[in-house]
Fold this protein.
Amino acid sequence: MNLPLSPLRPSFHSLSLALVFGLVVLLWLPTIANAQIIRASNTLYGRLGAGPSVSETDRATYAVEPFSVNGEVGYQMTRSIGFGLGLTYADYPEASDTNTRMTTLQAIGRWTLFPQERATPYFNVGPQLTLGGDNPAGGVIFGLGVDYMLTRRASVFLDATAYATFPDDAIDSRDDGRATFDGLGFWGAGVRSTLAAAPTPVKLRPIEGPTAVQRGETVRYTVRTNQDASPPIEYRWNMGDGTQRRGLVVEHTYRLEGTYPVSVTASNLGGKDTATLNVTVEEPEKPARIHAFSADTLTAYTHQLIRFSAELDGSAPLDAIWQFGDDSPPVVERGAHSYDRDAYIGHISNDIRQGYVYEQPGTYTVALSAENRFGSDQEEITVEIKPSTRRVLASVSTDPCYDPTPTDTVYFAFDRAEITAESRRTLRETAKRVAECPNQLVRLDGFADWVGPTDYNYDLSDRRASAVQDVYEAAGVSSDRIVMRGYGELAPPCPDRSRDQVNDPGCGALRRVESIVVMDEVPLARAEAEVEATAVPQPAHAVPAKGERGQWVISVGWHAKKQSAFDDARSIRKRLSQTDAPTVHVVPANTDENGYRVVLGPMPDVVEARAIKRALSEAIPADAWVYKLNHPLDTEMVAGH
């Protein structure tokens, strides 16, 4: 008789006990060692188990029966999924008075939750057919258990499986109970074996290869595994610098110095393993060398900027020390090599530059030394400094471009290279004045404080100087009139704490760029030469004057009468100082024109000639040209001094 109240109660009783059993298993599972033993896949398997049987029928509520044995054969498709055919033979005396021993045939699907672990829970589900009762019965099974690997082929298991049988009177010949079906079950333990063994996991031995290498050196690494590891085995390398490689043996070249964790992961069907080796990359032992050292001119004037350049080679860190032969202290460039913000790049070769202005005439020996921890090198060049032509024409020129311009200093926040709005306004005013004066050059010296790596500070000072250069170029000062250099860090102590930020770890007074305006006659002379070549018609013949081939003279004006030329010559003499002034002549004009010209010279240096010519052109309203003598002339001097 079917009752509507709780029609599935016997099933719930069985399931509740099975779930309690499964919960105990899951709580026990974390205590089991996680050895990397992988179950076999794509293989046949067999199971055999025994234990008590259970029943819940219209005759008895949840009875534990004497015995139950079962067997199963199947195919393990993947590590997690398998299908099998099972048979259970059990005694159920509480379920029936007459037919107590029954056979259950099952088609079983099994899901293994953690096949990579030694111990793992699993679930069973599928249809079943029970024979031997009062009538044949069909239904479904549901169960769970835990499987524990003993070897790569064999395991033991604990299992709790319930069978729901239909119709209700097939097992106990009664249908007057509380449910529309009867329940049978198996609680027990057993063994399981596969036809094929699970693959043997790969185990790595230590990585073989050098732990200390030089930057730029090609090195080889390999690794060995356990001999019984199941093939195929795949090797994946991480060289520690972002490079990935594959294979049992790899080669790699590190281009940055530092320490790199080299790792290799080997994997097969049985699992994977990883080995790591720390590799220290150092700079090659390459002594410092100077391959080239030069100046843009070996003859200059006081207050004229001379640009020096050199090409260095050697292992980083590489320092360059400049000594200019006067009383000034040496200029030291620490870490004079390339730098990447993310990592230190060792030096292979590098061009360096310096600009210098001499205040006094004389002959100076400029020495450049290159040093690193493996050696040093030194080169020298000699420069001759003459008195500035602006001293000769001091009373002539009132050009504001010769007025001294104060030095601008821009300060920066910690670890920053951005210019503040106030400093930008000041720089723009200076840049506008420089843009209007072609005889002025700008030297930008960038610095950092001592906080942080030396190489990083070198790059930071360079970026700060570059930021100031951008302001000058935006105001119209061409890049060829700017000498920019970052000098790296300045050592403590801090000379002034007033510019420090809150909790400043460094020194605000040292984080700066000095903008220094200097005078240079070379750009001015070049610009005037271009104007003369395009705008001023030159006579067909050289101006007559005494002199040697290759010397320079200045021709000023033209006079029809000799006396007028003498008067002009005397006026020019008065405007020149008596020291280092060129000789003034009055000579006949060339054969294509009558009259006379005033000639200054000859002079050996075109820069001096053009500077004097420019000053005279501003003071005297007359045409003036600078000429180079193409051959010696022996014309008689009419007047001179």
User: Anything to note?
Assistant: Helices lie at 9-28, 169-172, 389-392, 421-435, 454-474, 521-535, 562-575, 606-619. The two ends are 148 Å apart (CA to CA).
